[in-house]
């Protein structure tokens, strides 16, 4: 608890310092509005990371090391946690082939592309399937993303959150689902 | 809104502005130089170049791949280190800025606080409090300054005490001389009258009966003068608190001058409908004192003017005589107690006038043209 608070304080100070004097632009990563729709017997929750990789990321993605974005999703109904899950998106670049290998864990999908923009699009999109039975109309969904530390040529771990100004993009939204749709 | 920035605040703001600007400039220069470090490497399209190469063996290709991976990782490392350096430089600059600002403000206050204390102490001395003493703390220069100030205030206190003692001594001597003189004046005719009565009573009874009423009249008159003297000293000594009343000063002035106008040329002019808030008895005392002075210094045929001049919300009462005037060197002394140029009088009249004018919230001034006139002016609030 104290550790979390200290880390928040430090990241706040660092962000303030960056804003005040550093010329590092960084990225103001955030999520687009959540979208929920029914698919078969489950609900599919969709969102997208926006303004997250425009600046300072290209050389990092092209490092040949695996860049991992961790996600945590918490779904509540009537203040009770229905689901708490973690998954990751990862990118590994092959400099010889000039191909990006993108792993989307929640969909158990692997994509290969030589287009940088396409790779960014793929790692930004989240499509999470909730198979649990939903009993009421109100769902509260919270998603948080973070960049995992990266180990490059030296032994040192680099905190990639620096490129997101030490702020984890978070979205918390209430989704209202109609009765008719539930009955179906 | 009136925003008044003190000297101390403006110095602090100036320091912060200069300090922040120089830090930002330095940081900007540092970052722009940092940005240039790996730009040449980024521009090398090494992936394409190596991919287009044809390798003779799989081992060669593997080796090239290893080198390329290493190059890419190094490039990414420098990129991240650059970003970290920028962020940490910002963070450390912020810390330096905060620490330097706190240090500057503390030092600045440590220097300026004694100056502020000195200013306050000087004000106290100006108000007459010579007992003020500053704690001799702070930097050595400040300590010396405070020490000098303390010595000065001590010296001033000692000088003031000597002056007060000398002044008291002088006042007592002067007062004793004047009182002796004033008491002696009526005592002489009383003594003479008694001696004359005694002489005639023993030698010429008929003459005694003849001079008796006149001698008694003189004795009564002089005793009355002694009472008046005692009363004027007592009046001056006691605390005066005015009982304010709203009245028309023109009407009161008419009453005051009416006994005099049969004998002297006194002219009353000015605002007939103005009202003032003043203690009426004090007003009477003030006017009769000044008017009596004007009569004393004037000849019978001279004119004396009593004017009531209204100017905005002020009412000026002027009493102008055509006497010989007061020399500039003496004009400041006329309101001092026991200062008098008259043969009769102990010099309390105008001192009392000044006191009465002040307790009623009015202003008293005097102008004099030597050989021509003297004008007393009392400025009052007009209702």
Textual characterization of the structure:
The complex is a heterodimer of chains A (184) and B (383). In chain A, 20% of the residues lie in helices and 43% in strands. Chain A is α+β, with helices and mostly antiparallel strands. In chain A, strands 7-6-5-4-9-12 form a 6-stranded antiparallel sheet, covered by helices on one side. In chain A, strands 1, 2, 3 and 8 form a 4-stranded antiparallel sheet that branches. In chain A, strands 10-11 form a two-stranded antiparallel sheet. Chain B has helices at 7-35, 39-42, 46-51, 58-126, 140-203, 205-237, 249-257, 280-297, 328-331, 349-359, and strands at 245-247, 265-270, 276-278, 303-311, 314-321, 363-369, 373-381. Chain B is of the alpha+beta class and 383 residues long. Chain B is 64% helix and 12% strand. In chain B, the strands form 2 sheets. In chain B, strands 2-4-5-7-6 form a 5-stranded mixed sheet. Chains A and B meet through α1 of A and α1, α3 and α4 of B.
Helix content of chain A: 10-25%
- What does the oligomeric state look like here? heterodimer
Which two protein chains have the largest interface (Cβ within 8 Å of the partner's Cβ), and how many residues from each? A-B, 31 and 36 residues
Specify the number of helices of chain A: 4
Rg for CA atoms of chain B = 45 Å
In total, the number of strands of chain A is: 12
**How is the main sheet of chain A built?**
6 strands, antiparallel
